[in-house]
Design a protein that fits this description.
The protein is of the alpha/beta class. 26% of the residues lie in helices and 26% in strands. Strands 3, 5, 6, 9, 10, 17 and 18 form a 7-stranded mixed beta sheet that branches. Strands 13-12-11-14-15-16 form a 6-stranded parallel beta sheet, sandwiched between helices. The two termini are 22 Å apart.
Length: 362
Amino acid sequence: MAAVDIPKQYKAAVYDAPGTLSTKVETLDTPDPGAGEVLIHLTHSGVCHSDLGIMENSWAALPYPTQKGQVGGHEGVGTIVKMGPATENAAVKVGDRVGIKWVAGTCGSCLPCLEGADAQCQKGKISGYYTPGTFQQYVASQADYVTPIPDNLKSEDAAPMLCAGVTTYAALRRSQARSGQWVVISGAGGGLGHIAVQLASRGMAMRVIGIDAGSKEKLVRDCGAEHFIDVTKHDDKSITEEVVKTADGLGASAVIVCTASNKAYAQSIDMLRFGGTLVCVGIPEGEPEPIGNAFPAKMVFKGITIASTAVGNRKDAIEVLDFAARGVVKIVSRLEKIDKLPNVFQDMKEGKLSGRVVIDLQ
């Protein structure tokens, strides 16, 4: 393959005032890939609610405050333009289109890694948090952890699958729900939720109840939800009653909470039938709160399980990209340029987004 022209500098969006909603486009020096790394020319990056939490330092559970100058983002797609040393046996090469995920790299040898729990790696690197993220045109990444992108899948469609897709796919698998069973997707019209609805209904033959604001009903139903509940028209009692009534009078077999809402978590317990599973995905901002209504007696008598997933592993990523490549999942997104990132975050914070926003880095 002909040599690739690599610029000495490129554009990136950095968090210039962590703790606030603010990004700044700056010019950075192009990195040289280190041992075991590849240099990727990124063309697209999805924007996730997690990026907002990291930028604003609103996740109290994070061990350290976000550093000034951090490049955020963790749903990046681009082409490898240079191989670093010690990559002779890598499964990827220059010219390959690959993706970068929430977990940018793992040690591969700790107990979580050996169990396939990549997100819990004791030495893992998180893209966009103390590791350069994907809101930039060039980034060096671990060669054995980037994910190949199917040839027939557009980059702007692949990007959201690298976090929103793989996370909800792992959550649905963790729920233990089976084909034909009722599953509730809370936050069904968002970036994660609209993918979860499609994976559940079209990919796994589950019956989906979508919950979100009424403005997102058409999107949620178009994605395959059999029933929709407008969260703005219900209180805690009536919303759980509608779920139970819809789900054969027994409740759902699983509730996947994609939204970052403590209230949604508290409502979910009473939506479940005997033996049901709540899967925690969305992380609320502010000081951590216990899941309301999760009383031990209720959990015991109903046989309820609470599970969680931060993100899937490498195998999950490959499998979920295949769903998108085959057209089972169709991403609903809008493209924006890198300088519009603050506007995107503001819309996200105000709950105005339907589907995903993808940054065009070209």
